[in-house]
Amino acid sequence: MSSPAPQAGPSSARTPDLDRFWHPPPPSTARLPALRATLAKVPSPALRISRVAQLDASLLDGELEGILHAPVKAALDGVRPAGARSFEPEFLALLRLAILRMSLWDRGATYGSTLQNLRYRNEGRHAKGLQGAATDSTLSRVQKFAYTLLVVVPPYLHSRLQDQMLTSSWADEPLPRSWFALVDLRRLLKRGARRDDEMIQWRREWKRTGWELLGVAERLSAVLGLANFLVFLYNGRYRTLIDRVLQMRLVYSQRAFVPNVSFEFLNRQLVWEAFTEFLLFLLPLVNMHRLRLRLTKAVSSRASKSTALRLLASALPAPVAGTLGLSSLRSSSSSSNNTGPLAPSDKPHGPLAFLPPHTCPVCYSRSTAPPTHLPSASFADPTLPSASLLHHTGGAGGPAAGDGDTSVKVPYVADCRFACRYCYYCVVGALAKADDEADDAWTCLRCGEEVHGARREEVEPAQDDEEEEEEEDERAGGASADGPEP
C-alpha cells in the first residue's frame, strides 16, 4: 500500500508567484551615481532671472525699512533731550536684525523678494550643469549668519565712526608728515619734556589718518558696488556685492507662476502725469486774457438777445455778473447795435463824419479828449501808437480844438466801404487794441462800419509833369518854325 504524497507547504506555493512578479534590478542601475556625478560637467542652459524683479525687490525692502524706521525716529526725537547722544543707529541696526530674522531666517528670502516671487539659493551647490535644476538648494546657516552680519554691522559701525569723527573734528587735524612718522616709536620712547608733545602730535596725525582711511573705504566700496552692478546688468546673477561674496543668488520660488499684479493704479498715475505735462506745455501757448474776453463777449452778446438770459443776469450777484460781463448788459447791447452792419447810404454817418479827409479821426479824438497824463514824451504810454508821440508838435490844418497836429501822416485807408483815411500808426494801434480785446473788428470813426485791416493809400500821378512836357514840346516846335535869326 503506497503512502500518500506529501502536501506542499505555503512557502513552496508562493515561490512561483514571487519569481514571476519580482525581478532583480538591471545592471545599469549601478551606473546612476556615476551619471549623476558627470551631470555637473555637462553645460546646461543658463538660468535667467528678471533683473527688474530683483531691483524691485531691493526697492521694496528699502521702502519697508523706511516705513518702520520713521515712527521709531519720531519717537526718539521726542524723548531724547537736547544735546544728548542719539541712539538712532542702534535702533536701526536692531530693526534690520528683526526684519532679517523674520524673513531670511524663516523663509529664505526677504519680504521684497517674496513679493516678487524670488528666494535665495546656495549657488555654490549648483555648478554649470545644475544651474537650471528643478530643485534649488537652500541657504546654509553659515550663509544666513554671514549675510545678517554684513548687512547689519558695517552700516552701524560706519555711522558711529562718522559721528564720532565729526564730533571730535578729526577732519581738522593736521596731515601726517609721512607714513613712517606714524609707526616710528622711537620718538615716543624718548624721555624729557618733548615726549608729551610728540605723543599729542602723534595722536592728532592718527586721527586725521583715520578720517582719510574712512573716506578711502567709502570710495572703494562705491567703486566695487558700481563694478558689481555693471556685472549684474550683464549676467543678472548677483544683485549686490554681499550676494556675490556669499554666493547667494535670487531665483524664482515658483517657476510656473503667473503674477497677479494689478496695474490699474500705475496706469491711472501714468495717464494723469502725461495729461499734466501736456497741460503744462499747452497753457503757455494759449492767451488766457483773450480767451476770457472772447467768452465774456460771447456770453454778453447771447444774453443781449435772450430774455431768459437777461433775467438770469439781473438775478446774478454783482461779482459774478461782472466776471461774466453781464453787469453792463444794456450798454453792451446798445454798442453792439451801433457796431452792427449799417444801412447803405451815400455819405459816411459815423461819429466823426464831419472831419475833412486830411484830418485823422483818431488824432482828432485824442486831441479833443480831456488830458489823462502829462503831455511829455518821457511819460508816454509805450503801449499806445507811436503817432501819439508825434502829435505833440504844433501844426495847422484841422478843425481840432487842441494844439496838437491832427493831419494825416503816412496815409493809410481802411477796408471799410468808404475807404476812410487814417494815420498809419493810429489805424494800426486801433486794430491791435481791438485784437487784444478779442474784438472781431474795429468800428470806423468816420463811417461807422467795421474795419478788419488797412492798406497804403495809392496816390494818383500828378498832371503837372504832363503839362510841363506839353509846354516844352510847344516851345521846341515854335523855335524850329521861326528859324535862326540872321
From TrEMBL:
Domain Pex N-terminal, chain residue ranges per copy: 61-298
InterPro entries for this protein: PEX2/10, Pex_N
Subcellular location: Peroxisome membrane
Enzyme class label: transferase
Keywords, alphabetical: Membrane, Metal-binding, Peroxisome, Protein transport, Transferase, Transmembrane, Transmembrane helix, Transport, Ubl conjugation pathway, Zinc, Zinc-finger
GO-annotated biological processes: protein import into peroxisome matrix, receptor recycling; protein ubiquitination
Low complexity: bias regions: 1-13
Catalysed conversion reaction: [E2 ubiquitin-conjugating enzyme]-S-ubiquitinyl-L-cysteine + [acceptor protein]-L-cysteine = [E2 ubiquitin-conjugating enzyme]-L-cysteine + [acceptor protein]-S-ubiquitinyl-L-cysteine
Biased composition (Acidic residues): 460-474
Pathway(s) it belongs to: Protein modification; protein ubiquitination
Residue ranges of the region described as Disordered: 1-26, 453-486
A Pfam short name: Pex2_Pex12
UniProt main location, coarse: membrane
One CC-aspect GO term: peroxisomal membrane
Assigned EC number: 2.3.2.36
Membrane topology: Multi-pass membrane protein
A molecular-function term among this protein's GO annotations: ubiquitin protein ligase activity
Sequence intervals crossing the membrane: none
Family: Belongs to the pex2/pex10/pex12 family.
Protein name: RING-type E3 ubiquitin transferase (cysteine targeting)
The organism of origin for this protein: Rhodotorula graminis (strain WP1)
